[in-house]
């Protein structure tokens, strides 16, 4: 399973507030199949097969254009572990176990 951290930034929107765009990105993710996702204060975490993750990233990258943005900057970080099952939750549990 691939885990991606994605930040989508519409540029030239005429306002410093991006929350309407972020809300729309979350709506787009709700319609994507084969993924799990969670919103953080700085990015969105997307989990699923690599193909599903890339499809979701493409969909949310395109979303601000449909909302009137003329330029979009998207940053992506991907953790694609293939030797065993992985998830954001599992990664957090592993670190928490080592803190005890």
Give a quick precis of the structure.
With 100 residues, the chain is of the alpha+beta class. Helix content is 41%, strand content 30%.
Task: Give the helix/strand layout.
Elements: E1 2-11, H1 19-30, E2 35-39, E3 44-48, H2 50-66, E4 71-80, H3 88-99
Antiparallel strand pairs: 1-3, 1-4, 2-3
Helix pairs in contact: 1-2
Shape: elongated
First CA to last CA: what distance?
27 Å
Number of domains: 1
CATH C-level name:
Alpha Beta
Number of helices: 3
SSE run: EHEEHEH
- Any guess at the CATH architecture? 2-Layer Sandwich
Q: What is the C-alpha radius of gyration, as a whole number of Å? A: 15 Å
- In what order do the strands lie side by side in the largest sheet? 2-3-1-4
Low-confidence runs (pLDDT<50, min 5 residues)? Answer: none
What is the residue-mean pLDDT, rounded to a whole number?
95
Please count the beta strands (DSSP E, at least 2 residues each). 4
Strand residue percentage? 25-35%
* Helix content estimate: 40-55%
Given the helix and strand composition, which structural class is it? alpha+beta
Family: Belongs to the UPF0045 family.
InterPro entries: MTH1187/YkoF-like, Thiamine_BP, UPF0045_domain
Protein name: MTH1187 family thiamine-binding protein
Biased composition (Basic and acidic residues): 77-92
């Amino acid at each position: 399973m691939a885990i991606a951290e994605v930040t989508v930034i519409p540029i030239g929107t005429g306002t410093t507030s991006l929350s309407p765009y972020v809300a729309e990105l979350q709506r787009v993710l709700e319609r994507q199949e084969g993924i799990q996702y969670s919103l953080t204060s700085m990015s969105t975490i997307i989990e699923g097969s690599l193909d599903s993750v890339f499809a979701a990233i493409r969909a949310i990258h395109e979303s601000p254009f449909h909302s009137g943005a003329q330029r979009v900057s998207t940053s992506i970080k991907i953790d694609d572990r293939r030797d065993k099952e992985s998830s954001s939750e599992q990664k957090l549990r592993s670190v928490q176990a080592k803190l005890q």
